[in-house]
Inverse folding.
């Protein structure tokens, strides 16, 4: 007959020994081995309890209670040790974690500065109520010149060196044909802006044979030059900031009268004409840079689109996108726009 | 137009600064582009007097001079044949900056020290004269600066005159504008001709068979002239405004041209025959030698001046060599005429012979003022050459100038300008610029414009004048309220769709390129693109820009080459642009098609670790296209391998429904080599128009989310070489039961070295709309599906391992 006291003592010793082993266990695997050794089906706990049937009937409940208690204690000890080990493992992991490794960065694309500036400008005008329209780049002489009050052999044609496809078909030298096309397509009021590529037979430091323009046109009853001035002032201030000074200067375009050129205070030198004592290359020391041409639609143009010039007045303007982009981003060399060097392109994300 | 401020002051008493003048001229529409010092290169040159001049001991052609330059006397070795003691000469001392930018250093010439240099006109960059040193007026004081001693003009304004302001192409014209701008009185030039001898009208008769070509032709005669250099004041004044002095007759014609804007031409009268001058068009194919020695072939629209026997000048453009004023000329026939602008322009442009005269004629000259110009010219010629002016003016004026009468409504003016200009201001402005104003009807004035303002024809021209003089910069700023009719609500054009494409491309990490629309024909030939549809530029700047591109990739490949030359190792570029094709049915004989080009080169990922380092391949370019179609909510496209393509291999056509919407593939290696690729280049050329059309037809329609759970089954199919994954997937979808929701390829396994058979694993997702599917039902349906499939396609079905 087994002895209760021996059993109880053995259970107690189990706890002691388990505690010692747990202290030495340094991994989940070792911990599991300890658990199996003590609490497993063939473990020591089970081994000790194999004496239970031979205990006396009054000892059995005592031994049973003790066994449950010891089992609970062992389980708790195992769990505590597991938690301890988990914490240690987490701490070790963190100790070797390098938060500064490069991330799995998705590629960053970019839009061409011409696109960025075109959009920004068209957005300003769309906000003022203008529609964005487009038209062909290979254009008839009639739309590009004649209907814009530039008959053949008119000296004003010298203002733009033209690339010809045939005698009567040109690469459009400006976006102004869209004035004519828009007016032919609808009756007033007409409020459109037309961005696009234009072409001139000209190539040097400050000219490329292809560049981008945005044309604007508003024709309605009682449109005045004050409306033109207001519209363009609003535009210039939105693009270059409220501090930008604006100057309207009389000029000549065959399809507007009166005509004006709009200068803004040079954004490179702040209108002083000099940068660090050197002559400002952008404004050639004048403090002003020409940014666009504009004017009131010439009555002769209305003749070509069958509008009554007594009834309707309007304004038109045209600006060079690259020029605005150069000023806005501080790009010094026009030719970079079309070299497509990825080191240039990627700066305009 | 170069404006001498001193010269201008002869007509208007302007006493402000040059800068203020420049600013004001700019602000009334005559933009001053630059203020120039025309003699800047002579700043360091001083006046010297040759005290002694002796032979160089070692060299026959050199002289050794002592030259008094005011504070010292210099020893100068001079090679000029005309140097002599007593001359007053221009001298550059040691340390002076010579024209051309060199600084003069002390030198020894054949053993003799030289402490300066006596200058020729060519060395001073004045004229081409290098026959000897320049000899100056003996009254000048040694030591004085050359520019001060000769009272040279130091400020000349470079004025950008707009094409409408022909009147401003002269000193007088700009003086008129300055007078109006500053409210100063104008003193017009006058002439006082001392006539003598025979009457010019008895010597020459003027015939103008076609008056529309020549409204006015006048002649005067000078006799007994001595051709010589013009005096220094005349030469320097011409040099200041950029005109090369020639002789005392030709210089006067140029002087009057620059002063009054009237072109003149002087003939050697003794070389003319027949006592007649005829203004008549050339014969087709006729040849004529202009005074620059060039033999020119004419057409019948070119206007010539003829004497009784021959053509003697290309009217309004350039005189003839045969009757040019020369050193022996004694009698001068001076022409002052008005020609039809368009005719002169046509000839000057066709012959690429722009001259100061043609530039003014084609913009229009002052027919009334020309009489004063002619008189001033003969008067000056007589003064400078000692000649005698014959009596009278021979003239023929078949079309006298008709003064336009222009209506002006002040209310209209103020409406258009957004100003409130009063009647006094308007009247004063018009009067100051030479108009006669009849304001009897207060609402509608009648304004008569002066003969020099050919640009004033219509009311709006006067409105512009009022605004210009008042100051456009003083017009207030108002924002217009834009009212629109409903019909004017536009459909969204290409701009919007192109922007949508651009946004997508940027979003997937590509860089936008913008290339020229034109390329070299060779660039298209290299890609094997057809020649027939191309649009050529008739007058390209260079062969590189001679033809419009028919494929957007022609430009992108150029970008690749430039980037490779700069050492770029990875590129992901895109461009949205037009491709251009000739199209006889189009209004512009051109068809412009929106294209989207994509180009991948080098590593798939922009960054290194932890990304893997493989290069981009077919699945990258295809993936981009699939991503785009998905983004645009379009159907799944079919990718069909093309048997042949001129510049891609493999080349794969992208087909959506019935439309091929583009082509993707690898640039053939030999072509890629030209673009310095060294690695594979994958590209896509997509039809932006088709995408736009399909996109506008597609719409987002919401589908309710499924509420019942799906059942997913993976099946692996052994597919022999040649069976495409797309075919299998399509067949699965085609033969699948109604509950088959989707088919997705989840794995491809191609065992090495076997028959080329691939195992494709598809995930089949089944779902019923109204009930939860049971395994048995799915098993049954899938069994039937695989049965059908293996009969339809040569594929094997692997039962799942269990």
């Amino acid at each position: 007959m087994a002895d209760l006291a021996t059993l109880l003592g053995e259970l107690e010793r189990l706890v002691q020994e388990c505690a010692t082993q747990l202290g030495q266990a340094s991994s989940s695997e070792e911990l599991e081995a300890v658990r199996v050794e003590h609490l497993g089906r063939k473990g020591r706990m089970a081994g000790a309890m194999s004496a239970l049937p031979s205990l006396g009937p009054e000892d059995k409940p005592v031994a049973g209670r003790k066994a449950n208690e010891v089992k609970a204690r062992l389980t708790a000890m195992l769990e505590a040790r597991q938690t301890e080990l988990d914490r240690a493992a987490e701490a070790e992991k963190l100790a070797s974690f390098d938060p500064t490794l490069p991330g799995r960065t998705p590629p960053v694309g970019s839009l061409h500065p011409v696109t960025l500036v075109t959009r920004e400008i068209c957005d300003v005008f769309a906000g003022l109520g203008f529609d964005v329209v487009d038209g062909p780049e290979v254009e008839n002489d009639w739309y590009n010149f004649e209907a814009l009050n530039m008959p053949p052999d008119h000296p004003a044609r010298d203002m733009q060196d033209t690339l010809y496809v045939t005698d009567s078909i040109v690469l459009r030298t400006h976006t102004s044909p869209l004035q004519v096309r828009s007016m032919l397509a609808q009756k007033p009021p007409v409020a459109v802006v037309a961005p696009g590529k234009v072409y001139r037979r000209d190539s040097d430091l400050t000219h490329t044979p292809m560049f981008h323009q945005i044309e604007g046109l508003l024709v309605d009853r009682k449109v005045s030059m004050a409306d033109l001035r207001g519209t363009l002032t609003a535009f210039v201030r939105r693009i270059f900031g409220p501090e930008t000074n604006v100057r309207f200067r009389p000029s000549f375009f065959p399809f507007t009268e009166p005509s004006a050129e709009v200068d803004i205070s040079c954004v490179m030198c702040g209108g002083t004409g000099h940068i660090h004592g050197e002559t400002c290359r952008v404004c050639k020391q004048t403090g002003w840079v020409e940014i666009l041409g504009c004017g009131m639609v010439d009555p002769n143009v209305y003749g070509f689109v069958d509008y009554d010039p007594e009834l309707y007045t309007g304004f038109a303007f045209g600006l060079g996108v690259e020029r605005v982009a150069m000023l806005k981003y501080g790009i010094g060399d026009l030719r970079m726009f079309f070299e497509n060097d990825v080191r240039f392109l990627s700066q305009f994300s | 137009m170069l404006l001498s401020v001193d010269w201008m002051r002869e007509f208007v008493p302007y006493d402000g600064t040059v800068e203020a003048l420049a600013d004001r001229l700019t602000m009334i529409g005559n933009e001053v582009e630059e203020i120039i010092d025309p003699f800047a290169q002579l700043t360091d040159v001083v006046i010297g007097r040759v005290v002694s001049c002796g032979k160089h001991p070692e060299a026959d052609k050199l002289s050794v001079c002592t030259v008094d330059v005011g504070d010292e006397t210099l020893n100068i070795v001079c090679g000029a044949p005309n140097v002599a003691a007593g001359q007053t000469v221009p001298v550059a001392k040691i340390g002076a900056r010579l024209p051309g930018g060199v600084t003069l250093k002390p030198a020894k010439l054949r053993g003799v020290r030289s402490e300066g240099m006596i200058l020729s006109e060519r060395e001073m960059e004045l004229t081409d004269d290098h026959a000897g040193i320049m000899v100056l007026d003996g009254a000048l004081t040694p030591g004085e600066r050359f520019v001060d001693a000769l009272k040279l003009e130091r400020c000349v304004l470079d004025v950008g005159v707009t094409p409408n302001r022909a009147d401003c192409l002269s000193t007088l014209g700009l003086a008129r504008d300055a007078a109006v701008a500053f409210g100063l009185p104008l003193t017009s030039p006058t002439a006082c001709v001392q006539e003598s001898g025979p009457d010019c009208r008895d010597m020459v008769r003027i015939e103008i068979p076609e008056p529309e070509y020549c409204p006015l032709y006048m002649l005067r005669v000078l006799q007994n002239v001595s051709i010589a250099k013009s005096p220094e004041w005349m030469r320097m004044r011409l040099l200041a405004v950029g005109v090369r002095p020639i002789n005392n007759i030709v210089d006067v014609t140029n002087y009057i041209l620059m002063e009054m804007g009237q072109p003149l031409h002087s003939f050697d009268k003794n070389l003319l025959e027949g006592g007649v001058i005829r203004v008549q068009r050339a014969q087709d194919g006729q040849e004529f030698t202009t005074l620059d020695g060039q033999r020119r072939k004419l057409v019948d629209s070119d206007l010539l001046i003829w004497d009784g026997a021959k053509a003697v000048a290309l009217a309004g453009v350039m005189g003839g060599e045969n009757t040019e004023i020369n050193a022996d000329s004694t009698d001068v026939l001076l022409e002052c005429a008005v020609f039809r602008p368009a005719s002169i322009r046509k000839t000057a442009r066709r012959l690429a012979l722009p001259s100061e005269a043609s530039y003014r004629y084609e913009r229009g000259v002052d027919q009334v003022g020309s009489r004063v110009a002619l008189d001033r010219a003969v008067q000056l010629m007589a003064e400078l050459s000692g000649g005698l002016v014959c009596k009278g003016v021979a003239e023929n004026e078949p079309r006298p100038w008709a003064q336009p009468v222009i209506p002006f409504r002040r209310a209209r003016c103020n409406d258009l300008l957004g100003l409130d200009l009063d009647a006094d201001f308007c009247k004063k402005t018009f009067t100051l610029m030479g108009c006669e104003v009849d304001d009897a009807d207060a609402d509608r004035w009648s304004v008569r414009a002066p003969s020099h303002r050919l640009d004033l024809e219509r009311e709006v021209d006067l409105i512009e004048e009022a605004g210009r003089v008042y100051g456009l910069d003083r017009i207030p700023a108002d924002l217009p309220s834009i009212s629109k009719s409903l019909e004017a609500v536009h459909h969204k054009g290409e701009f919007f769709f192109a922007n949508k494409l651009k946004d997508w491309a940027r979003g997937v990490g590509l860089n936008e390129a913008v290339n020229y629309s034109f390329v070299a024909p060779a660039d298209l030939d290299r890609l094997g693109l057809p020649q027939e549809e191309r649009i050529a530029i008739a007058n390209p700047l260079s062969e590189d820009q001679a033809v419009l591109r028919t494929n957007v990739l022609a430009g992108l490949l150029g970008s690749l080459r430039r980037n490779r030359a700069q050492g770029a190792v990875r590129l992901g570029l895109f461009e949205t642009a037009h491709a251009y094709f000739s199209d006889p049915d189009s209004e512009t004989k051109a068809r412009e098609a929106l294209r989207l080009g994509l180009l991948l080169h080098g590593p798939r990922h922009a960054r290194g670790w932890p990304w893997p380092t493989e290069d981009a391949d077919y699945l990258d370019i295809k993936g981009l296209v699939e991503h785009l179609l998905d983004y645009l909510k379009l159907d799944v496209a079919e990718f069909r391998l093309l048997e042949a393509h001129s510049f891609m291999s493999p080349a794969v056509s992208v087909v959506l429904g019935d439309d091929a919407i583009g082509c993707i593939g690898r640039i053939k290696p030999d072509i890629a080599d030209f673009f310095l690729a060294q690695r594979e280049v994958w590209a896509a050329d997509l039809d932006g128009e088709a995408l736009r059309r399909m996109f506008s037809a597609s719409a987002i329609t919401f589908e309710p989310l499924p509420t019942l759970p799906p059942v997913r089954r993976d099946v692996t199919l052994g597919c022999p070489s040649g069976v495409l994954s797309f075919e299998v997937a399509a067949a699965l979808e085609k033969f699948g039961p109604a509950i088959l929701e989707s088919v997705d390829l989840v794995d491809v396994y191609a065992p090495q070295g076997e028959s080329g058979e691939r195992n494709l694993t598809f995930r089949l997702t089944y779902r019923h709309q109204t009930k939860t599917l049971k395994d048995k039902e799915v098993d049954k349906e899938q069994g039937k599906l695989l049965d059908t499939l293996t009969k339809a396609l040569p594929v094997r079905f692997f039962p799942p391992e269990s």
About this structure: Residues 59-95 of chain A form the longest helix (37 residues). The two ends of chain A are 89 Å apart (CA to CA).
